[in-house]
Amino acid sequence: MPITTRAAVVESGGAPFTLADVQLDEPGPHEAVVRMVATGLCHTDLGVASGGLPFPLPGVLGHEGAGVVEAVGSAVTGVEPGDHVVLSFTSCGACGNCDGGHPAYCATWLPLNLIGGRRADGSSTVSRDGEALGGHFFGQSSFAEKALVDERSLVKVDPDVPLESIAPLGCGVQTGVGAVWNVLKPVTGSTIVVLGAGAVGLSAVMAAALTSATTIVAVDRVGERLSLARELGATHTVDASEEDLAETLAVITGGKGADGIVETTGNVTVLRQGVDALGARGTLVVVGAPPFGTEVALDVNGLLGGKRIVGLTLGDAETQSFIPALVDLVKAGRLPLDRLISTYPFAEIDQAVRDMGAGKAIKPVLTF
């Protein structure tokens, strides 16, 4: 039988989140019903809610969920009722990239996660008063008290770690950490620069601090976030509202340029500055996502020193091994994710959205 639950529904692009009763479809063979305990609020949720991406609305968003499994489909083998889980993106599990350990680049990633709003077979996972809603967001749509979740979105985690402390691992944190660990892979003495000190950027700073990089530079325009970056492992900070980024980075790197840069702002002017600040054979990881169709101009000759520009989705992480490792680091106090989190009751989702937009909250986490 369908399950009735309370969800935050976006009626149309630009509309606020509205709490309403919705019905979840019965779980299919490779799905589970998860009682949500917490879910992070991400800029991707806000981008879709604003109408900036072609997701079918009205719909239920949310893609940084954490909760307890209540029921599983007939073919689910990785979890069982009572297990604690962090929810992340879904993937087909059968294409070349999935087979190769890179499910974030699944051949069907966009329709399965970001813009489809339905299962792969076109069926709906959530409805209201008999009318299908956009759902299946990242295989979860976790802005609800209960979620119908794809098996490949489920990651079983240590039940001793509070779920509200690790919900953001499913997207923002694994993106920032993966940019450093899976792409830049700093060697001893490396210089890493992080452009933007939001949740993703600060996660990258924390990740860099767990490597043998010796110079970690955080760049932002908000002094409080730069101070936090220092506390989380940055050796240098640059206030872009007061300092010339190119000149300051040249001084910090002794004129050699950066070995690795993580661009999280989605601002193409900042991206260009980052590319110019790379040293020979340096790599810039593009994480921030401006509107579709946005282009950036580059100095082609400036790239000939072996510079690389790499786009990144979700940290290029294999979630079943990556997220439990991050949970272990959180539990040990080595990844102080709590410094980024502000919690809000689920009913206050619009306040969380406002605080995030105003820069008052780095990583809002809704609790149920």
Folded structure, characterized:
The chain has 368 residues and is α/β, with parallel strands linked by helices. Helices cover 26% and strands 26% of the residues. It has 11 helices and 18 strands. The protein has helices at 43-49, 96-99, 109-115, 172-184, 199-209, 223-232, 245-252, 268-277, 300-303, 319-331, 349-357, and strands at 3-10, 17-24, 31-40, 59-60, 65-72, 84-87, 126-128, 131-132, 146-150, 154-156, 191-195, 215-220, 236-239, 258-263, 278-286, 308-311, 341-345, 363-367. Strands 3, 5, 6, 9, 10, 17 and 18 form a 7-stranded mixed beta sheet that branches. It has a 6-stranded parallel beta sheet with strand order 13-12-11-14-15-16, with helices on both faces. β11 (191-195), α5 and β12 (215-220) form a beta-alpha-beta unit. α4 crosses α5 (199-209) and α7 (245-252) runs parallel beside α8. It is globular. The two termini are 23 Å apart. The mean pLDDT is 96.
